[in-house]
Write a structure and sequence with these properties.
homotetramer; Thiol Ester Dehydrase, Chain A; five-stranded antiparallel β-sheet; 5 strands; elongated
Amino acid sequence: MVASRTALTVRYAETDAQGIVHHANYLVWFEEGRSDFLRQQEFCYSDLERAGYYVVVAEAEVRYRAPAFYEDRLIVETTLCRLRRKLLEFRYRILGSEDRLLVEGRTLHMVLGRDRRPTSLPQEFINRLQDTLQQGRG
Amino acid sequence: MVASRTALTVRYAETDAQGIVHHANYLVWFEEGRSDFLRQQEFCYSDLERAGYYVVVAEAEVRYRAPAFYEDRLIVETTLCRLRRKLLEFRYRILGSEDRLLVEGRTLHMVLGRDRRPTSLPQEFINRLQDTLQQGRG
Amino acid sequence: MVASRTALTVRYAETDAQGIVHHANYLVWFEEGRSDFLRQQEFCYSDLERAGYYVVVAEAEVRYRAPAFYEDRLIVETTLCRLRRKLLEFRYRILGSEDRLLVEGRTLHMVLGRDRRPTSLPQEFINRLQDTLQQGRG
Amino acid sequence: MVASRTALTVRYAETDAQGIVHHANYLVWFEEGRSDFLRQQEFCYSDLERAGYYVVVAEAEVRYRAPAFYEDRLIVETTLCRLRRKLLEFRYRILGSEDRLLVEGRTLHMVLGRDRRPTSLPQEFINRLQDTLQQGRG
């Protein structure tokens, strides 16, 4: 399976009064990983929106194993683990120094049209992602 | 079971370019619901931190059923569904107008001491929450 | 001059590793004060956007006098201090317990149309705000 | 004068319902620029905090000239423009493609000790920053 690895450095604004990264930020980083995963397939989510498709989050799950701190350099590892015409599922691992697992999670997405009703992804998009997955498995 | 109901109005900063509330904000609102739940038991999370206990998020799950928009008036309904010496589990429902269910979720929490190692909640805290739960069930 | 007073309680997610409210949140609270000011004039910013007007921030200034902490109950005091066809200026004071001044600031706004070019506010909007100001001064 | 240039890509969570970056995020990016400026002087703000010094924001000013959008690649250009024993002032320019100026601003900072009272920066810190400035001017 193809995985993207997105580097980020923890911002001060992402910490909270416990001195660690506030737990809601991991959803933002998952989203960053997802955006980066698509960009690495030479695909911009912006293009998809311009074409009238919205990929919305239907479910999110996060397991927090160890905290991250200000200025930590992290990796968001993103994989696409399910691809249907009307839904996508991504998995994520947030890694700290020496690739130590800090947080893992998954998000399930539905595809909506301009009218905010469920629709299918454009076939070209599915093909491109499918191809990449198959290359990854081969 | 005792539930707290926390009212909030969606802020502009909580929306994203899809024109709806960004999905990470629901974790912030769950946290608000949790804080409010504890305050309604005449208990401030600040006091617990001052006494050297940190309640950290170990797991979070969110199911998004319908979007919320800028200026929507929402209710965060919070219940404590599990209470052990070293962990707590809360459930949440975010309700829109006419109590329509928009989002639901749960968070699991561990208790850490000043050394960031797992510890037990003070017995007084457990008693107070337990009592409330039992009254609620009675 | 008419001032609105918006109450809020500091959220945990709004704190940072210094143990105080992160300074960027005051811009979000100013925006909340502004939204509330307009709602008190029986005017929703959402309606303005639906009519094709965007009020964008052109300048912001904040002076931080004293920190706020988790669970602090604050007041955002908002006044409209300038109203032209194409611009508005608001002033804000964030007050802590016993109305102690914590933070003050101002924001200057321009009005854009659907094409993101400067335009004038609808006359009806100007009249309503002007009337309120005049009543306030009278 | 020495300037640091920090690259960032706009995150989806940083946009709002106007389809552009929410204006409060620029304060977060200024902070990122500041952290990066210090790191480039081989200096971590984390070290300063561990030594018991807090550099807090006393004033912030932002001028918004043009909006930024999701996935835009931006540069935060940061310069230290004033350095006293008890205060620092930074200036920032946020640049879009072809170094087009989008936003500029400044922040003024005070130095607090563990007791949250004003104090002087450690001399070693001042020397290091002063030296860098002098080299920059030479």
